[in-house]
Design a protein that fits this description.
globular, two-stranded antiparallel sheet, 42% helix, DNA-binding, 7 helices, alpha+beta, homodimer
Chain lengths: 156, 156
DNA sequence: GTAGTCAGTTTATTTTCTGGACGGACCATG
DNA sequence: CATGGTCCGTCCAGAAAATAAACTGACTAC
């Protein structure tokens, strides 16, 4: 199966993975949410080839996840910013962070223990971790609490 | 930067991406949460080479996300099941699904419109979409509601 | 006019992915 | 007991993607 075939699947996972399902794309998005905006900064922080950096950024712009915004003329320079669609990926990144914190952050008392980053909710002032809840009854959700069935966009 | 280097980074995204940051791994996990368990079924549903299927499943088992469970002898056959750690990836997959539903499911009234799958919360009986909330005050969260700073596991 | 910043592109090499054939352990049918 | 079918992989050679390092180009600063 090719990259393009993925985005044609009647599956929201496949369609999204076709856009962000790539090591470096996910790392770029992490940096976007940390405030990185310029080509040189992405390239330096990620330690990957300029080729890949350029290609992935272009892909994200084409998909409408990032947009190029000029920040100076002579010479014309752009920075990459998250669009509204890009902001919608925040739950994805935070879910990934939360998994990493839980399983790869090391035990307390050890060297390098604890999460590398803390997240503070401005409104309540607390350090938090994200909790996935039901949009209807607001209860926390796990895989075993859910039944899945075909929806209107399913293919026969 | 190589695959291995990613898992050494003091970053929960990088460490998690080192495990699941791959097109096919994410598709395999999707199928796991839909109840797929056998090699032949993964292979047929994904339409990818047997080589990759075998390699990715092995990787997930090595990481403790899946476990092999015998379901018959003569000949010995195994199926792949999610571990507890694997179940912790549910919020990641659901976040991806939710993004796909929002941006790639098509508009109502169009052909192929609406989400391909519906998710029903058993406890309340409603079809839902996942909402990310603060573990402390239970309010819904967006990227702009959060401040990030270095945690105990950060590197100097 | 020499050096530095910033955003890429080009090139050649290495690594990874791919499809398709093959292997092995069984079972079911005639 | 021979033929075909199921199931889980492995092996191989060609195709595709990732890599590092050098290069372009448009400026600014000294």
């Amino acid at each position: 199966m090719k990259w393009d075939a993925l985005s044609e699947e009647p599956c929201s996972v496949a369609r999204t993975v076709a856009v962000i399902g790539d090591r470096w794309t996910l790392m770029i998005l992490r940096d976007c949410f940390l405030g990185v905006r310029r080509f040189e900064d992405f390239q330096a922080r990620l330690g990957i080839s300029r080729t890949i950096t350029a290609e992935r950024l272009k892909g994200l712009v084409d998909e409408g996840v990032l947009k190029k915004v000029g920040y100076q003329d002579r010479p014309t320079r752009f920075e990459y910013r998250l669009t509204e669609k890009g902001h919608d990926l925040y739950p994805v990144i935070m879910a990934v962070v939360n998994f990493g914190d839980r399983h790869y952050a090391g035990q307390e008392g050890q060297d390098g223990a604890g999460p590398p980053l803390l997240h503070r909710h401005k409104a309540c002032g607390c350090d938090f971790h994200p909790v996935m809840t039901c949009s209807e009854c607001h209860a926390p959700l796990g895989a075993r609490d859910v039944e899945t069935r075909a929806g209107p966009g399913a293919r026969a």
